[in-house]
Amino acid sequence: MKLAAFDFDSTLMDGETINFLADAYGVGEEVAKLTAEAMSGKIDFFEALNKRVALLKGMSEKKVINICENLPYMKGAKELIKELRTRGITVVVFSGGFRYATNFAKKVLGFDADFANVLHAKDNVLTGLVGGDMMFGFSKGDMLLRIQSLLKIGCEETISVGDGANDASMFELSKVKVAFCAKEVLKSKANVIIDSKDLTKVLEYI
């Protein structure tokens, strides 16, 4: 293995960033429902993302940053990434969530690069709009293919780890496809299934 691609929400981090934000803003129930449907593949990821972010319109950017810098990381996340990098494996993170969270997590967990979405803010307040690298259901696979091309790394040398429907596109380009505490829609496409919240178990399959 030379390249490891990870999902962030509910994989490296124990929960969904947007649900934490929504709970703090009083729209948690509505957002959580949309998140669950998107991660299960029941509704289009792009459509669900825009609907959820629109519900955060008016939220203080300062509050968003504070929440994103205090998220609970998954057990074993730091240890796993450290071991992968010790073995010379490049570690990238793809998140349908937000750079406020992944940029900070990069400093804590030590992965090489993050690709996520950006919550648009004006005058330090969220506008309800979003853009970025991971807007669509196919975005993770699309970015993984580009990275493989740049680093001259093939599918046979790639492992991907995720939990939701929008992680399936990574699996198509990976030899080791790890469904971590995942939705059934992703488990059906995996060749490794881990159902306990301990990321160090991934090392058993590398």
Question: How would you characterize the overall build of this protein?
Answer:
With 206 residues, this protein is an alpha/beta fold. It has a single domain, classed as Rossmann fold (3-Layer(aba) Sandwich), CATH 3.40.50. 39% of the residues lie in helices and 22% in strands. It has helices at residues 17-25, 28-39, 45-54, 61-68, 77-86, 99-109, 139-151, 168-171, 184-187; strands at 3-7, 90-98, 113-122, 125-132, 158-162, 176-180, 192-194. A 7-stranded mixed beta sheet has the order 4-3-2-1-5-6-7, with helices on both faces. The longest helix has 13 residues, at 139-151. The chain is globular and about 45 Å long. The protein starts with a strand and ends in a 12-residue tail after the last strand. The relative contact order is 0.19. The mean pLDDT is 96.
Topology summary:
Elements: E1 3-7, H1 17-25, H2 28-39, H3 45-54, H4 61-68, H5 77-86, E2 90-98, H6 99-109, E3 113-122, E4 125-132, H7 139-151, E5 158-162, H8 168-171, E6 176-180, H9 184-187, E7 192-194
Helix pairs in contact: 1-2, 2-3, 4-6
Radius of gyration: 16 Å
Number of domains: 1
Helix share, percent = 25-40%
Based on secondary structure, the structural category is: alpha/beta
Overall 3D geometry? globular
Strand content: 15-25%
CATH topology, by name, is Rossmann fold
Brief overview:
By secondary structure, the chain is of the alpha/beta class. The chain is 39% helix and 22% strand. Helix 9 links the parallel strand 6 and strand 7 (192-194).
